[in-house]
UniProtKB/TrEMBL annotation:
Substrate binds at residue 338. One of its GO terms (molecular function) is L-serine-pyruvate transaminase activity. One of its GO terms (biological process) is glycine biosynthetic process, by transamination of glyoxylate. Heterodimer of a large and a small subunit. Soluble hydrogenase catalyzes both production and consumption of hydrogen from suitable artificial electron donors or acceptors. This subunit catalyzes the tritium-exchange activity. The lineage of its organism: Bacteria, Bacillati, Bacillota, Clostridia, Peptostreptococcales. It comes from Alkaliphilus pronyensis. This is Tritium exchange subunit. Residues 23-319 form the Aminotransferase class V domain. The modification N6-(pyridoxal phosphate)lysine is found at residue 193. Pfam families: Aminotran_5. Keywords: Aminotransferase, Pyridoxal phosphate, Transferase. InterPro entries: Aminotrans_V_dom, Aminotrans_V_PyrdxlP_BS, PyrdxlP-dep_Trfase, PyrdxlP-dep_Trfase_major, PyrdxlP-dep_Trfase_small, SP_NH2Trfase/AEP_transaminase.
Amino acid sequence: MKEKRCMLLPGPVYTPERIRNAMSKQMVERRGEDIKQLSKELIRDLKKVFKTERDVLFFVASGTGGMELALVNTLSPGDKVLALSCGNFGDRFADIAVAMGLNVVVERFPSGKPVDIDCVRKILQKDEEKDIKAVLITHNETSTGVVNDLEAISQLTREHGALSLVDAVSSLGCVDIRTDEWGLDVVVSASQKGLMSAPGIAMVSISPKAWEAVEKSRYPKYYWDIRRFKKFNEEKSLTPYTPAMTAMYGLKEALNMVLEEGYENVLERHRLITKALRAGLEAIGLELLVDEAYASPSVTAVKFPETIDSTAWRKALRNKYWVSTAGGLGDLIDTTFRIGHMGYIGREDIITGLSGIELSLREYGFPVEIGTGVAAAQKVFAE
């Protein structure tokens, strides 16, 4: 029965059978030809979703580990960085930088709103001495369901001369990222969200400009030294330390599935199900946190009716209707819930999820006409 659960979570996400089967393979020699070939294929396919011809490397880590890796390899203690935050994970990127002893200027934007491009422009133009060495950007803010204008921010960063360090943990595989075209210096992502695999692998793309910064970095590091990974990859098609073979098997099968569907088709699927979900939620009578103009194709934050206990309701939704959603984060923890629609998600998941939400809200006294949300989503799918 558990296989039937409708997992509308912002990660880790539902892992399809093909990927689970791939992860059940036997371990192989860690320096053998099998793992070398797998590493080559992983990097080849990751470049396709990153949309880059530049270096892509992977590590045994979470997305947070990848964010720290980006900082510790391209900067030095005391460097000034601009952290752009519109939610919990933008704050996390800033917190990592603070913990590392960087001089962090945090520019925060209201929850549910994107990074203000004009504000970024003014900050960077004011920095005439070019003291800001890097701009920390959260592409897709998972806590609010906001997608930021990465192309515009990157252009301003390039004009200034700072590095662009991008958290794409919840956007890669769901939101278009044109690493080379937009001139992104370091892009960090992970295996357990849009790429619908298990947690355990962080991956990064690195531009030539970022590699120049790597050579100047004065941070002490051993495991996180990206030069070791580059050297081993170029010379041996291996990682310098024990690889997470099971996670690698799963990620490779996930990339197979993405490329079989066609990556542009995957992105379009995410846009379509987001449109249908938002239409359904609004038809039910729920208020969405984020305007459609900058709504994320991978996660939607919903304002919770004040008359209902959100924690108890989500528990009932999960236990009775088998629909799993996520609570709010940060200053939105008591006022919102989040619906993840990333990775292995299709029309049937949206219809099932909306049906469960309607039924459970009605049980809690919310005035909803059964079927209105489902019908609104179906109308989008039928267009």
